[in-house]
Amino acid sequence: MSAEDIRTLDPILRPRSIAVVGASRQPGTIGYQVVANLVRHGYTGVVYPVNPKANSIHSIPAYASVAEIPGEVDMAVVVVPKQHVLDVVDQCGAKGIKGLVVISAGFREVGGAGAERERELVERVRRHGMRLVGPNCMGVMSTAPELSMNATFAPNMPPPGPVSLMSQSGAMGVTILDYAAEYGIGINDFVSVGNKPDVSGNDLVQYWGEDERTSVILMYLENFGNPRHFTPLARKVTKKKAIIVVKAGRTGAGAQAASSHTGALAGLDVATDALLAQCGVIRVDTVEELFDMAMAFGTLSVPKGNRVAIVTNAGGPGIIIADACEARGLDVAPLSEETQASLREVLAAEASVRNPVDMIASATPESYRLVLDRVLGDESVDAAIAAFVPPLGIKQEEVAGAIVDATRGHDKPVLAVLMGREGLPAGRAQLKEAGVPGYIFPESAAKALAAMYRHRQWQERPEGTFVEFDVDRPAVRRIMDEACAKKTEHLAGPDALAVFQAYGIPVLESRVVQSGEEAAAAAEELGLPVVLKIESPDVVHKTDVGGVVLDLRTPEKVRKACDAMLERVRTELPDARVAGVLVQRFVAGGRETIIGGTTDPTYGPLLMFGLGGIYVEVLQDVVFRVHPISDLDAREMVRSIRGYKIFEGFRGEPPVDQDTMVEVIQRVAQLMAENPEIEELDINPFLVQEKGGVALDARVRIRCG
After folding, report:
1. For residues 487 and 574, what is the distance between their CA atoms, to the nearest angstrom?
2. Mean per-residue pLDDT, 655-682
3. Distance from the first to the final alpha carbon of the chain
């Protein structure tokens, strides 16, 4: 949306007047609850209940129809039965209402006639120039003091704050709002999007990205409407504020029918992880983690570095926090000698003044105040986690107060962990009031702080460059057209390599032969030694059937190996289509990688990089990203695999050319984006060497027609 388009959501999120169509006097109905919430929570605008059978609702004059409302109306909340919704939309359009929230269900979510009803709903909304939230939603909310709008049927309204929340599930939305107050999460806006045929998550991200009151965006998603639009939008917004997502649907059968390594490894949720990672979005697995993140991001500034100090009165929690921090990229940094000396002045002799600082069980609230203050003053510390396990005689709220006191005068984020149930509500309430996030479990605090540091890294990360290479598109088109004319789904080995070569990717010259004699002749022409590979669309794992023979140094050995290979494959796989044997010059040294891609029906081209050769499916040391891919994205792919160190040189082996891998990943991304009929492809292996690299084998599966 343009800046002007963003403002089309104002009638929904900043309405000056609201009509509730389907308002009711009957307690327990949605029409009753919506009006009650608007009144009870002090909506500052004008409310117009619409019910032809009532003179007033909640002591507010009611109107028989939208047309009878005397004043202007910005938004209508529609809670009538599904069969009346379309007529209400036309009435609202005639009245000039620009914002609709359709809570009514019975649309696309029920299929059949419901889907057609939703299609007609959207058509009428657009005809009248309206924006629509829903149908099948629970409404919208804004806690802004000048608005104080609860246009939902949720029983509670959370405290105001900097967090704006979108939920695709009404039930999850109610749950999150219920717990927001308990966790100390201040909500600015809440939108339950329902079926989201019009106003989507993308629209809300863009709106809240420009909203000064919103510093954190939370999203509960069940599916992406337009992930290709989300990518550039989220990249921009996350440079200014955090987006935290919990997305349902991580599991599934996925890619059982995939014919390539990339397709087999690209499971149901890989694309979502890849998309969010390269947009700077923080993904969490549970709603509890969503709260944990929201508490930290909603109250604290992100740390300037990854050096964390841990202060505790028990060794066990200190060790747990330290392990959790180190595992997530935080550095439990040594404290300076000056800081350690100052801590010895105020702690018992048995205490440890190293990081983690273990003040032992005799520590008092005053110990927490003094130690935390001095630790935060250490220049080698960027953030702190204070953990308390209650011994006899010391109250949680007293320690919480000391932690709050210690944070004053410091601009470094502090997270607290209050363990044990005695006095916990009072202690957490005190922390919450002071803007210090308080956790029950030590790992939760470590996860939240680590996420904040990653967000800092993302904000400081350069944008990267999106390169368009000069390639031979006509050559690829000829190969594709010829394959489709022959009704060939899998490109033959030489054709697959030719496709990559047309996009500037170095490949080995090769020949396809039908016999040992032809193989021997081809070997002499290409130059010995050579490698032989069975050429068949039905053989994915060539080594499983003896379909690869390396380092053949004489024509006679080539001849015998070729004939034996053909015989072996025909015996073991009598139904396999065998096009012949591929002969290539044998190249030694380097590191074997795999660079591949698959086309996801929702996300588009999904690129993969990892360790290649025969180990790709055993180790599964791969990483995925969604197109478009910048040079920085590609470099992060190379550096993100577990085996990255072997590229830097290992046990006397020289380092390999990482720039070549980065460029080839980008070229493969361009190949897939410009040729959408490609469903799957692999370069396996792409042999990267000390200087340059070369594609040794390739698979390409296309969709014709």
Report:
1. 22
2. 96
3. 34
Closest CA to 134 of 250, 5, 22: 22
**Cα 525 from chain centroid?**
51
CB-based contact 506:548 (threshold 8 Å):
no
Domains in the chain: ranges and CATH: 3-140+168-214 (3.40.50.720), 299-460 (3.40.50.261), 514-581 (3.30.1490.20)
| Eight-state DSSP code of residue 196 | -
- The encoded tokens of residue 125 equal 């909304």
Torsion angle in degrees (nearest 10) through CA of 555, 556, 560, 561: -40
pLDDT in tens, 179-211: 887 787 899 999 999 999 999 999 999 999 999
What does the pLDDT read at residue 541?
A: 78
Asked if 400 contacts 422 with a C-beta cutoff of 8 angstroms, the reply is no
List beta partners, residue 693. 688
**Reduced to 3 states, what is the DSSP secondary structure of residue 119?**
helix
The pLDDT value recorded for residue 268 is 54
- C-alpha dist (Å) from residue 241 to 162, 238, 435: 11, 5, 18
Give this prediction's pTM: 0.89
**Residue pLDDT, tens place only, 367-387:** 999 999 999 999 999 999 999
DSSP string, 616-647: HHHH--EEEEESS--HHHHHHHHHHSTTGGGG
**Residue owning tokens 């935060």:** 376
> In 3-state terms, the chain is what percent helix, strand and coil (to 5)?
40, 20, 40
Fill in the amino acid letter for 126: R
